[in-house]
Amino acid sequence: MSPTPDQPHPVTVEERLFSLVLALIATQIGLTKAEILSTVQGYRQRFQVGGDNASLERQFERDKDDIRELGIPLETIESPDDPGSNHHLRYRIPKGLYDLPADITFSSDEIMLLKLAATVWREGSLSAESRRALTKLNSLGIESTDPIIGYAPSLRAREASFEPLSKAMDRGQIVAFLYLKPGESAPRRRVVAPLAVVLHEGRWHLYGTDQDADAPRTFLLSRIVGAVVTVPGSTPAPADDGLGQRALAELDALWRAQVALITAQPGSDAAVRLSKRGTPGAGSDSVELHYTDLNILADELAGYGPEVLVRSPAALRDAVLTRLRQVRDDHAPHPTSSDAPTGGDR
Q: Where in the chain are the domains?
């Protein structure tokens, strides 16, 4: 059913996060939580003036975590008249981090093309609701003197399973899907009561109760194969706002417990990138990296080729070697008929 004229179109998570980022870049002085909830697309539709906005505030807290997980810096500014007060706390994203370096210049023709591209991008990527939100922010006296053309959305695209899982949680339904674990040749059907979908280390995870194991499990959405379907006659799962935090706490604990020691070639791309995420190891040019998923880290490290040497753990080193050998074998020349052994006297 399509929305009626009085019924607004549903706001996706991407648009809400993008609208929030856009609003926080547009202001120099920052926005209070009340200003954000009452003006930004995705919040204002549910905001109740003088009413109970507790669930909306919890949504904002989760969105702040998601934005920071995506590598976007989010600053908080205390009121000088009321230090320590969360009520008057302001939020902003420093726009200067998205400005070009001062030593980069463009010719007049290049500037003309950039302006044209920026205009097309703004008109094509901002919804009418987002543009109205910026206008409303200006009406509050929060001016944005610079056109926001230096910010390109970097919100990570969600997997196709995100929406059906979210709907199943809202309706208290149990779902089934095919899940392909690393090392397995075929996916296996899993029946799960979804309890929370969380963003951790830039990846979406499903936290739910595995009906076959009758125990909580965490699934990486990128490993769900095919469609997510509801199970007829399923028992509604209990709703609990704390389950998302519990899932994140478990993922954080796993991340802290698992440490890889690697050596990166000095001056290489691997050394630059991995040193920013890890801490110096005991040896020269070594880096300690925390991780939640061994196979995801193995995929990344194998992509650096000879620039990286895995010291520990052994399981990670073996996983990287397996991937490198697979690449070698896939690119090995196939034997021709002339290379085939010929028959001899027996």
A: 13-139, 162-245, 258-330
Overall fold of domain 162-245: SH3 type barrels. (2.30.30)
Give pLDDT tens digits for 150-204.
444 444 456 788 888 988 887 888 999 999 988 788 999 999 999 888 888 878 8
C-alpha dist (Å) from residue 140 to 18, 125, 134, 157, 285: 20, 24, 10, 32, 52
CB 316 within 8 A of CB 297: yes
- List Cα–Cα distances, 179 to 63, 175, 190, 200, 213, in angstroms: 27, 12, 7, 19, 15
Query: 35-45 burial string, b = 16+ CB within 10 Å, else e?
Result: bbbbbbbbbbe
Interatomic CA distance for residues 222 and 162, integer angstroms: 10
Residue the block writes with tokens 């895995």: 310
* Pairwise CA distance, residues 173 & 169, whole Å: 6
Contacts for 69 with CB less than 8 Å, ≥ 6 apart: 199, 200, 201, 202
Please tell me whether the peptide bond between 313 and the residue prior to it is cis, using omega within 30 degrees of 0.
yes
Inter-residue contact 328 to 292 (CB < 8 Å)? no
Under 8 Å CB-to-CB from 290, ≥6 apart: which residues?
255, 256, 258, 259, 260, 278
- The predicted structure's pLDDT at residue 110: 64
**8 Å CB contact between 307 and 269:** yes
CA distance 260 to 297: 9
As a whole number of angstroms, the distance between CA 90 and CA 273 comes to 32
pTM of the model: 0.54
Average pLDDT of the segment spanning 312-331:
92
Going by the DSSP 8-state scheme, the letter that residue 98 receives in this structure is G
